[in-house]
Amino acid sequence: MNGLLARTTNFWKRPRVRIVFWAALTGLAMGVSGLGLPLEDGMRNMRWWSRMHSSDKQVVVVQQDDRTLDELGAIDVTHGNDADMLRRLFAAGARDVYFARSFAKRGSVSDDLKLVDVLRAHPGRVYLGATPGDDVGKGNYAGALPLKEFRKYAGPVSILVRHRPLNLNVQLTYSSDSAVGRIPSLSAKLAGVTNNSDDLFFPDFSISAASVPTLSYIDVMRDNFDQSKVRGKDVLIAPAATSLNDVHRIPGQNITAPGAFFHLIGAETLKRGIPRDYGWFAPFLLVMIVIATGLGRGRMLDVYRFTGLVAVLGAAPFVLDYFGIQVEVIPALAVALVAVIRMRNLDRVEVAGETNAGSGLPSVQALRSSGDLSSRILVSLKIRNYGAIIGSFAEHVEAQLAKEIVRRIRISDESVLIYHEGGMFVWLSSIRSSFDLFENLEGLHRIVQNGIQVGGIDIDLSFNCGIDSEFDRPLSSRVASAMQAAEEAVRNDELVYQHDARKHEAQWEISLLTSLDRAIDNGEVWVAYQPKLELKSNRICGAEALVRWTHPERGPISPDKFIRIAEEFHRIERITRFVINDAVRVAVDLERHGYELTMSVNISAQLLRNPGLPGMISEILATHGLSPNRLILEITETDRLDRSSRTFQMLQRLVQSGLRLSIDDFGTGNATIDYLRYLPASEVKIDKTFVSSMEGRKDDLLLVQSIIEMAHSLDRVVVAEGVETAQVLEMLTGMKCDLVQGYYISRPVPFRDFLDFVSGRRARLIG
Ligand code: C2E
Ligand code: MG
Ligand code: MG
To answer: What residues have their beta carbon closer than 5 A to ion ligand 2?
Structure first.
């Protein structure tokens, strides 16, 4: 139930849904109130005008025009004139005669008798107009009926006309109520249509009123007309003089004509077929259905669809006119137009929302509203002091600063599209591996650390990053994750934080790395010491410092693992400094206890390329007051060194400063005797894999033996590491190995234990 509610609320929150709702409401209001009618009629008139054609000329209009009244010298014709008139018309062969005027009032007694006489002579062939009475209100009620004595021979026809708002158009009924029951409208009667309903219909005003044949009343009265004009035709007698107040503008036609023409054109319309009127609701409903189906399909509801709809609504009535079908499209058009305009605005707002006003970069919102999937890592970079920077400099600084940041991001993450919002810069990285990306961000950090120049001002920036690589989630939710991760990184003072770090090992490693600094500070990282035993004297002559990380949740983490990551991400310097510092301090401490031991520390090859290394070491030695020759630097992966390399020069510098070098893990690379010769190392450490297996494998035994001999021939001290058994120890003694190191003597232990061990307070395994 809640879900449904939420979905309903969400649906309602969609701006497009709201637009459609308001558009529908506008349309309904238009339809119900009839506010759109003048416009509707205006359009209708234009359509009629465009289709204007001639009348079928089956009805002749006899006009009581100004000339008639002038020549008669009267303000109106009399019933006696009408009687003369009828006699002449019937004599000329006219069919039926219709009077589009009222016969509710008496004339002179003789005139009325004269008229009754004529009517009696032609029963059922004359129709007299019934008009709205003065005493009754509006509506479809003919209050003023022809006099009873006339009605005996002449049928009453309603000449009511329904004027539309602003007189822009007229409609006629099929029949009207009256004191004598329902009477047909003049138009229906003229067309021979029997329909007792109150229904209204539009005369088809594309029938030109000007093309209707006419005669002047006075000419007919004086028998001064072409009789063939009326032969076999119906005749409509119409008050046409201006003084008679029945002259109207014909809708869609640029002329005025007596009101009788409405009925004449209406009759001709009916003769062609009963017009149908579907009103406003049907088109309105149709448009709503189109919109609703569009909504269902999401983005289908676009401006183009609506523009098409508006075009159809404009054009359809033209076509329907030919089929005698009337519709009112204004309410439907209102729906479509309101929707189009508001959608346009929405689109504009959305486009505006897609660019950040301050920086001109695409806004993060654009990414947020995207349901797309991407297999790229999403990076969110948060400038911590962004607000302060923007606040304290001129307005244009934001755009320039953003430009500078973008430029720097693109140095290594080429041509990525960068989205911006406040202090956040978000992009889908082109770098596929989290490791590389991390390294990259480190580099960016270093670059930015030096400050950014914007318009001659130096700006200090500090940032943190959040990354998200859950490719199966839509970007909209990944943006949130990446941003959240960036905030987390800010809180924990880490450069990069990965969203949902437990999901993949690689991710875990990154988070591991990001917490390394903190781990060093809070004592999770410490140094273990493993003794080196001199075989000749059977004395502990030195120790190797080995870093340890006891993670509060994961427990001990192998140095093999985190050293590798630290190397990859250039975090090794911090660790090494920490280890050397501890080792040197311990060596000095041991010295105070009377043990003058050498101290071995591991230096990764990467660090040898760092020119700051000798300085760092000598500084530590000076701080604690230890002689450099007591410190042995164990180096690995140096087998590809050549004499001209920077690393080689570094090794020489280190040796010149009095430090000793040891080649660690000897035998694993493809070291040659020549290499051993020119490398300024005083010690060779045979890799533990050969040592621990020499008991069972003859070739390993031979290898160990030849290394010892070779090293000795070059005056190098030989250390065998990984001594785990008494037998191996014995064999190495036989081979004249100088020093041994391994679990058989002691595991790497905390300094307290190491001191106990050296001082003999702890059980010694040998000696
Ligand atoms: P390594 O320098 O060759 O260190 C010797 C490794 O052999 C240590 O592993 C030690 O615990 C292990 N070991 C000692 N005796 C025996 C034995 O009898 N049998 C066996 N199987 N193993 C033995 P650990 O402490 O896990 O260190 C692994 C590697 O991590 C080191 O190899 C070294 O390369 C690196 N490492 C350790 N501490 C540091 C450090 O502070 N800086 C750098 N750059 N690397 C370090
Ligand atoms: Mg070592
Ligand atoms: Mg080793």
So the answer is: 602, 634, 664
